Each structure stands twice: as structure tokens, then as C-alpha cells.
Amino acid sequence: MRMKDSQDWRDEFDFVVIGSGIGGLSGAIAATDWGLKVLIVEKSPSVGGVTAFSAGQLWVGGNFLQESSGIHDTTAKAYHYMDRIALGYNVRQLTKNYCINAPIALKYFADHASMRWKLIDDWPDYYFPEVPHSVPSGRYIEVEPFSAHTLGSFWRSNCQVGPTGGGRLTHDEARRGGGAARQDKEAQQLSAARTASDVRTQGSGLSAALLHGVLERHVAIRTATAAEQLLVQDRVIAGIRVRDAGGNVSNVRARRGVLIAAGGYDWNGLANLSYAGLPNVKAAGPSSVTGDGIALAGAVGAQLARIPSPLVPGFRIVGESYRGQPLWRLAAGLLGLPHSIVVNRQGRRFADESFYRSLGFAAAIIDGGSQTFTNLPFWAVMDAQRLARYPLGPIAAGGVLPEGLAMEANSLSELGRQTGIDPVGLELEVARYNAFVATGSDDDFGRGARPWSRVSYGDHQRGGNPNLGTITEPPYFAIPMELVSIGISSVGVAADEHSRALDYRDRPIENLYVAGNTMALRDLGAGYNSGQANTRGMTGGYLAARHAAGDPSRALHDVS
Ligand SMILES: Cc1cc2nc3c(=O)[nH]c(=O)nc-3n(C[C@H](O)[C@H](O)[C@H](O)COP(=O)(O)OP(=O)(O)OC[C@H]3O[C@@H](n4cnc5c(N)ncnc54)[C@H](O)[C@@H]3O)c2cc1C
User: Fold this and answer.
1) CB of 384 closer than 8 Å to CB of 376
2) What local confidence, expressed as pLDDT, does residue 18 receive?
3) CA nearest to 246, candidates 260, 221, 226
4) pTM of the model
5) Residues 452-501: pLDDT tens digits?
6) Of the candidates 260, 262, 256, which has an alpha carbon nearest to the alpha carbon of residue 238?
7) CA-47 nearest atom, ligand 1
8) Is 57 in the pocket of ligand 1 (CB under 6 A)?
9) pLDDT tens-digit readout, 120-144
């Protein structure tokens, strides 16, 4: 919409931020520090976005924390690693930009916004050791436990806590307590004490700590307020139109820029169909993430770009919901533990179950010959040992499965008949898998060979391969899996190294910035390492703020 005169503005700010995930909160902090008057508008009644639901990892090569831990790493090494796994889908200048500016932004928020970062100990890169310049440890970062009481009672209740757990222990504490396989008594007690005193970790701690930085700066925040439209004056983005919870519409001026950090399109079925290229995609983040970023920027001529990004296997416990929406849980941990496999309707395995990206990419394959999805639908098949030994989402080891979660049978062939999985195929596949367990080596898909999977999802008390265990003890169970979006969208708005949105001629749209999942993944390409989604949000917000304030980062050009 074109604005005719200034009388239409109800409020005036320098920098208006849409969305309160890591991209928005980081941008707001930096913009304030660079002298701008900032407003955050957040569609949901609470701040935090998908970020608060996340595991809260960041991934930064050559970061300042490595030095004191005696780890030798450089931004150049991180770049070569990222460039290799991007498979050519990346814009190299943007990959470099990530590698150079992420360590700077990380240090900036530590020094100026009291972000208490720590390294996550001994956590290898996804593709360590096979990809050159991968490292066994030193690039994963998380926040120290953060007391939500420092937010004051209003914001404490209005800053999201992820509904599926992981919000009370750091990654190091969870691993020391037994990891995905179990949590010992000490870890359970610590988690309970932190819940009682509202000390947050992982994504919930990250959001709360960033919000604290925003509140310290007295940034204006309007929750339950959605950006509906970008307003244009003389071909420049001049502000936004917002609608509050009461349905009131007003125009807010943004003298120096608008930052769209509204996430992806997780809860928008049609967008998932068009952009992820798959029907029936589910979502693990908050239901306010519906593709508004793309819609807002697209309406003023921003260029959209698509990069392959797999969805993640997930499941739902019938009846579970969060704020009125069905609650989807990620299955990555569940699938990597021993005594279970993932099969398609032929009863065949199709990927390394201990690495969700292998499953996610493989699940989406279409067989043009039969015009079916080769691997959809798919199921996690497990035996009684699995359920007796390990937790399954919120269900403790040895606990009873809720009604409707799984199909159960005393033989694999009966399980096949109940589910529609080919019974003979399933029996043969389980026998083949059990033979791999006996040798400790999965010759079909290399399950448990990847150090990252062993650390993340292995049973560390087992000898041998920590991700393998036989499927031999009835009853047998099959849990239907779905593909779930975790905010990291295939399609986003193309941006340059200052987070400026680009038009279809690759020209910056004046005063329009994007960060986080609203920004196309052209820095990562088809590669990913957990932590990079949060890191690019933080870095993109920081760079946008500096550019809008008239002091753009020169680091990329100084180093290149
Ligand atoms: C279970 C889970 C675990 C994950 N773990 C990790 C991890 O460990 N490390 C990692 O890097 N990534 C992880 N991710 C992904 C990561 O959390 C997200 O990619 C990232 O946090 C997204 O940040 P963002 O800045 O793009 O915005 P989001 O956090 O997606 O927030 C966007 C915000 O914009 C708001 N909004 C939307 N539309 C409007 C509008 N019109 N007006 C105003 N506000 C609007 C939304 O309500 C939302 O609050 C995980 C995701 C999930 C679901």
C-alpha cells in the first residue's frame, strides 16, 4: 500500500521489528545499541517464537569461547565445511558472511547484552569426521541456565517455554544424566528444581535471555499484534500496518527500516504444499508461524528463493495439544535409540534412523513409475525391550503407551497386517537388521557410525554400537510417523550480506530487512548443522540493525 502523507501514522519509530524469535530479538537489541528507537510487534500473546521451542543450540566456527578451551578452529575452516555440505545450493558470499559475522555477533551479545554463552562439550559436527574441516567439538554453543524471574512477573508469564521438554537442563547436564536413553535421578531432581524456580535452558533460556536484553533497553513490545502490510512511500518501505487483538488497525512509521523476522510457514498447509513440496506437513513450533514474512515481503516485490531443506520425523500423542493446536513431537531421539527401526509400507528400512536428515530427505522421494511416495507412509517399529529400557517422548521407560499412539501385536506378521506394512517384508527386514546388530555394524545405512548420532541418541551404557539393539522381544509396536516442520523453511526471502531483502533484479528493497527463517537459506544451501538456524537468526538481526543505523558491518569485505 502506498502512503500519501504523514498524517496516517499513529506511531513513529526508527526500526520496526516483526516477530520475537531470535532474529527479531537480536535485531532489536542491536538496533537500540546503535541509537535507533525500536518497536517489536509480535502476533502471538507471548514472545519467543519457534526459538523458545528449540533445543537452543548455536553453531559458530572460530568462536571466542574456543580459545579458553584450547580448541583450534577458524572461520575459514568453518566456511570450507559449510561450503562442502551446501552441495552448491549456497551463495558463497553469504556462506562466508555467516562464518565471518556469526562469531562477531556472538561476542557482541556476550559483551553488550549479557548473553552468557557456553560451549556444549564434546559435541561433534554432523559430518565429522568424513567432511574436511569438520571438528569433534567446539562449535556448538548454548546459554547458561537463565532465571526467568529477572524478566519480572509479566514477561515471565509472557515469554514462551517450549512445550515438549528440554527446557530445564543444559545439553551437557542432560548428557551427563544419561542423554536420550535415560535421565538419572540427579538429572531429574535438577530438572524439577529448575522448573520450580523457573530457571530456563536451551531454547526457552535463549529466548528469555534475549528478551532480558530487550527489556533492559526499554524497547517497546506489542504482543498479540500482527503486521498485516508493509507501507511504501516514494518506493521506500516506510512502515507497517498492524492489527491488535481487539481488531484495531493502525499504521506505524519506521523511519530507518522494517525487519521481518516472522519465521517460516510451518502452520500454513498451502504454503507447505507449494514450498516444501509435500502434502500433509505437520508443525512443531507455535501456531502463529504461518508464512506472514513471505507474504508481507512478496507483496512489495521481494524475491523468493528455494533451497532443499528436509522435514523431520515426528509423532503425536492422540489428544495432546498446546494452546488449542495439536502438539507434534520430534521423533529424532526416539528413532536413534536401540531396539527400533523405521520402515515404509514394504517393511523396508530406507535411511539411517539415528540421523534425522537422512530420514527426512529419503521420506520425501517420489517414485514416478508407480506414482507413489516410495517411503510414505512410514512407521517406527520396536519391541518390548525398547519400551522397557528407554523413554518415548513424555512416557518413561516401562510406562504404558497412551491409547491410540501405537499398534501392538505379538508377532511381526500380525503387526504388518494391522498396520498395512507388508508382513513378509517386515519379517525379513527385522531379521536382516538383527544380523547387523550382532556384528555391531549396520551395513545398509551405517546407523551408529556417525559420532554425532552416537553422542545425541546413543545409549552410552551399552557396549559396542550405542544406536543398535535387536528387535526380538514381543509384543511389537508400530508408531505412525509424520513429516514435521521445525521452522527451517525451504522457501524464504532472498537477502544480501546486510540482511536487505532483494527484489527480482537482485536490488535491495530500500529499508526492508529479513532475518531468521524469513530469510532464504542461501547461506546454508542444502547443508545444515543444528545450531545454524538460531545462529543465522542472531547474525541476520544484528547485521540488519547495523545497516539500518547507518553503520553497516565491514567485516565480510575486510576479511575477503
Ligand atoms: C523442537 C525444535 C528444536 C529446534 N532446535 C534447534 C536448535 O537447537 N538449534 C537451531 O539452530 N535451531 C533449532 N530449531 C529451529 C530454530 O528454533 C528456528 O529455526 C529459529 O528459532 C527461528 O527463529 P526466527 O528468528 O526465524 O523466528 P521464530 O522463532 O520462528 O519466530 C517468529 C515469530 O514471528 C511471529 N510472527 C509471525 N507472523 C507475524 C506477524 N504477521 N506479525 C508479528 N509477528 C509475527 C511469530 O509469532 C513468532 O513468534 C528447532 C526447532 C524446533 C521446533
Assistant:
1) no
2) 99
3) 226
4) 0.97
5) 999 999 999 988 999 999 999 999 999 999 999 999 999 999 999 999 99
6) 256
7) 49
8) yes
9) 999 999 999 999 999 999 999 999 9
- Written as one letter, the residue type at 153 is S
For residues 552 and 506, give the distance between their C-alpha atoms in angstroms, rounded to a whole number. Answer: 19
Orientation of helix 532-548 relative to helix 92-112, angle to 10° = 80
Note the pLDDT of residue 3.
61
Atom index in ligand 1 nearest the CA of residue 296 equals 41
- Residue identified by cell 492422540 is 318
- Is the separation of the CB atoms in 280 and 250 below 8 Å? no
- 3-class DSSP state of 544: helix
The whole-angstrom separation of Cα 440 and Cα 462 is 11
Q: What band does 4 get if pLDDT is binned at 50, 70 and 90?
A: low
Q: Ligand 1 pocket check: which of 42, 54, 59 to mutate, most ligand atoms within 8 Å of Cβ?
A: 54
Residue length, the chain?
A: 560
- The DSSP symbol for 145 reads P
Place of cell 506378521: 413
- Answer yes or no: is the C-beta of 519 below 6 A from any ligand 1 atom: no
For ligand 1, pick from 51, 98, 528 the residue to mutate: most ligand atoms within 8 Å of CB: 51
Side-chain-side CA neighbours of residue 444 (13 Å): 18
